[in-house]
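Exercise: predict the structure of this protein bound to nicotinamide-adenine-dinucleotide.
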Amino acid sequence: MVKKNIDSEALYKEVARLMADRKQCVALTGAGVSAESGIPTFRSKGGLWEKYDPIEFASIEAFRKDPSKYWSLRGEFIKDYDRYQPNKAHLALAELEHVGIVRCVITQNIDGLHKKAGSKNVIEIHGNLMEIICLVCGKGYKAPHIPDGMPPHCSCGGILKPNTVLFGEELPVGVFMKAKEESASCRIMLLVGTSAIVQPAASLPYLAKQNGAKIIEINIEKAFPEADYFIIEKAGTALPRIVAEVNKFSHE
Ligand code: NAD
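Solution:
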């Protein structure tokens, strides 16, 4: 297997050619794709977990013990929510869907920026921070229309929880099933800005590879050694370059 890791014109051309030829491309994205929108990642330097212990703040066990603690972290995460805008990486992925190359974005992010950027087929496997659910009756709310209180309570009296998957929680079965189907049937997987260690999401690139897909990793450092191509670059730089190369092919 040829592994490429040179940041060169030739690499971008080869990757773009592969994408234009094969199409049926699925993108699996992580916190790194939103880093250039100003949202800190979990594990990279200066990331969220240097500030907060995940078990103390973002596990289902901790939530059940003291929901207001998680609500205060959520408050910090979303206080500038409207200020966070899709960056060039999100926009490039939406463009690649528009031209028929990317067929689906599977994201571990809970920030909703892929949809905001115009991607239509988005699977948010860890949920969305703007959706809120009652743990007792299951009623859904959408931020900013959340009842007051810390923690906020549903009209039925139950405690409300952001509809995101916390550490120790199972992923919604139907959602992850769809992500598995997309991964198993794609011909290219773009792995963008993910450390590829959070399970079960981390199993998806292996599933894609086992079924014959080529894996193209875009990250500021190598995170998935089994990739076929490495573009070691910020996603907001690399993805627009790929779009530009792909567009050249369609004008040949
Ligand atoms: P992670 O923090 O474990 O890894 C981030 C990865 O992004 C690293 O490999 C890093 O090298 C790379 N990266 C950083 N800046 C980049 C850039 N500009 N371009 C390309 N790559 C860049 O994130 P993860 O793999 O997504 O897993 C952690 C969990 O964190 C996920 O479950 C996700 O739900 C959650 N999370 C989400 C958000 C968000 O919604 N924006 C933010 C933080 C964490």
